[in-house]
Design brief:
12 strands, alpha/beta, 381 residues, single chain, 36% helix, binds pyridoxal-5'-phosphate
Length: 381
C-alpha cells in the first residue's frame, strides 16, 4: 500500500502550491493530461469509428466506475454535463398537477439546484423550503413528491442526517434526490444501503476529475417505471434506427439525452482511479485527522469556526471566520495557499489525502499573520 504523501508526486500542482481547495476544484492528477491526449489521439486516428469503439458507451462505462464508488449496481449510473442538468432529468420524470405536487427542499442546498427546483413552481409545483435536515423531516407529508437534499452542505461542510429524511420520505410516499457532490471521494456513501431514490454528484471536487462529468444514480426498480421528458436519442433503445418515436432503453441509458461530453469523460476517470486506489474509507480517516487538526490550530489561534465540532457530522471542508475574508482569501492565494471564502462562514479549507500536516500548520500561521494585519476595529471573529 502506498503512503498517502507518496501520491503527491501524481499531482503536479502540489509542488507549486498549498492546495486546500479540493471542495471546489480538486487537484489534477498528471494522468488526466494523458487521458485527454488519449481522447485526441482516438479522434485523430480512429475518426468516426471511435463512436463504436467506446465513445458512445462512455456515459455508462464511466458511470459504472462511479457506481463502484457509491455502492450502486453496475448499469444504474449515467453521466451528464453537470448536476443541475442531471437533476433536471429527474424532475422531468414527474408532473406537478395532482394532490402530490410538493417539493420539500432545504435552505442549504447548492444555489444552482435551488434555482432549478424554484422554477418548477411555474409547472405547478408547491415549493417548501426547510431550514435544515430536521426541518425537512418535519415538512414531508402526503402531499410531498420530491425531496431534494444534500449529503454534505457546501457552505459549512456539515453531514446531513439523510437516513432520517429517507425514512420519513418513504413512509409518506415521497422520493429523495440526494446531492452528494460534496461527499463522494471524501465521505463514504452507499446509495443502496441508504435507499435513496436518486443521487447526483459531479467530478470537479473530491473526485479530482475536472468539469463536465456529473453523474446520476436512479434506484434500479424505480428507473424501470420512469420516462424522462428531458430526453434524446441516447435514451432510445435503438438510437441508430432513427425511429420517429421515443422508445426508452433499459436501466441508466433511459436517463441520457444527446451526444455525450466525450473529452470530459476521458479526463474524469484519472481522478476516479486514484480515489478508488486509495479507497474512500482511508481518505475519510485521513480527512477526519486533517479537519480535527485544522480546527484545533484555528481554535488555539482564537478563530471561530462554523464547522461541526463532531467529526461524525463533519465533511472534508473546514470553514473559519476571519476579519475581511474577501481580503485575507486573495492574500492567501497570492501566497500560494489555494482556498476560497463564502458569505457568512468565511474561509473554506478543503485538504485532501495528499496534504501534509505541515501544510495545515503553515496555512493557519499565514491566516493568523494576515488577520493581524486587519485594519483597527476588525474583530477576529
Ligand atoms: C453540493 C453541490 N451541488 C451542486 C454543485 C454544482 O453543480 P453543477 O454541476 O450543476 O455546477 C456544487 C458546486 O459547487 C455543489 O457544491
Amino acid at each position: 500500500m502506498r503512503d498517502l504523501l507518496d501520491y503527491r508526486a501524481d499531482f503536479p500542482i502540489l509542488a507549486e502550491t498549498t492546495y486546500l481547495i479540493n471542495h471546489s476544484l480538486g487537484a489534477m492528477p498528471a494522468a488526466a493530461e494523458e487521458r485527454v491526449l488519449e481522447y485526441a489521439r482516438s479522434w485523430n486516428t480512429r475518426g468516426v469509428r471511435a463512436w463504436e469503439e467506446g465513445w458512445w458507451e462512455l456515459p455508462l462505462t464511466v458511470g459504472d466506475q462511479i457506481a463502484r464508488l457509491i455502492g450502486a449496481p453496475p448499469g444504474s449510473v449515467s453521466m451528464h454535463q453537470n448536476v443541475t442538468l442531471a437533476e433536471a432529468v429527474v424532475i422531468s420524470c414527474f408532473q406537478f398537477d395532482g394532490e402530490r405536487r410538493r417539493i420539500v427542499y432545504e435552505h442549504g442546498n447548492f444555489p444552482s439546484v435551488r434555482y432549478l427546483y424554484q422554477a418548477q413552481a411555474r409547472n405547478g409545483a408547491e415549493i417548501v423550503v426547510a431550514p435544515d435536515d430536521e426541518g425537512v423531516v418535519g415538512a414531508i407529508d402526503e402531499r410531498t413528491l420530491l425531496v431534494p437534499v444534500t449529503h454534505v452542505l457546501y457552505r459549512t461542510g456539515r453531514i446531513q442526517d439523510v437516513e432520517a429524511i429517507v425514512a420519513r420520505a418513504h413512509e409518506s410516499g415521497a422520493l429523495v434526490v440526494l446531492d452528494a457532490y460534496q461527499s463522494v471521494g471524501t465521505v463514504p456513501l452507499d446509495v443502496t444501503a441508504l435507499g435513496v431514490d436518486f443521487a447526483v454528484g459531479g467530478s470537479v471536487k473530491w473526485l479530482c476529475g475536472g468539469p463536465g462529468a456529473a453523474w446520476l444514480y436512479v434506484r434500479p426498480d424505480l428507473a424501470a417505471t420512469l420516462e424522462p421528458a428531458l430526453t434524446g436519442w441516447q435514451a432510445h433503445s435503438r438510437p441508430f434506427a432513427f425511429e420517429p418515436e421515443q422508445d426508452y432503453a433499459d436501466g441508466a441509458w433511459r436517463f441520457l439525452t444527446g451526444t455525450p461530453n466525450v473529452p470530459g469523460l476521458y479526463a474524469a476517470t484519472a481522478g476516479y482511479d486514484v480515489v478508488e486506489e486509495v479507497g474512500v474509507e482511508r481518505i475519510r480517516e485521513r480527512s477526519v485527522e486533517q479537519t480535527t487538526l485544522l480546527l484545533e490550530l484555528l481554535g488555539e489561534a482564537g478563530f471561530v469556526s462554523d464547522s461541526p465540532p463532531d467529526p461524525a457530522r463533519r465533511g472534508g471542508t473546514v470553514v473559519v471566520r476571519v476579519p475581511e475574508p474577501e481580503r485575507v482569501g486573495p492574500e492567501l492565494v497570492a501566497r500560494g495557499i489555494l482556498c476560497d471564502w463564502r458569505p457568512e462562514v468565511g474561509l473554506r479549507l478543503g485538504p485532501h489525502f495528499f496534504n501534509s500536516d505541515d501544510e495545515l500548520r503553515f496555512t493557519v500561521e499565514q491566516i493568523l499573520q494576515l488577520s493581524r494585519a486587519a485594519p483597527a476595529g476588525a474583530a477576529r471573529t
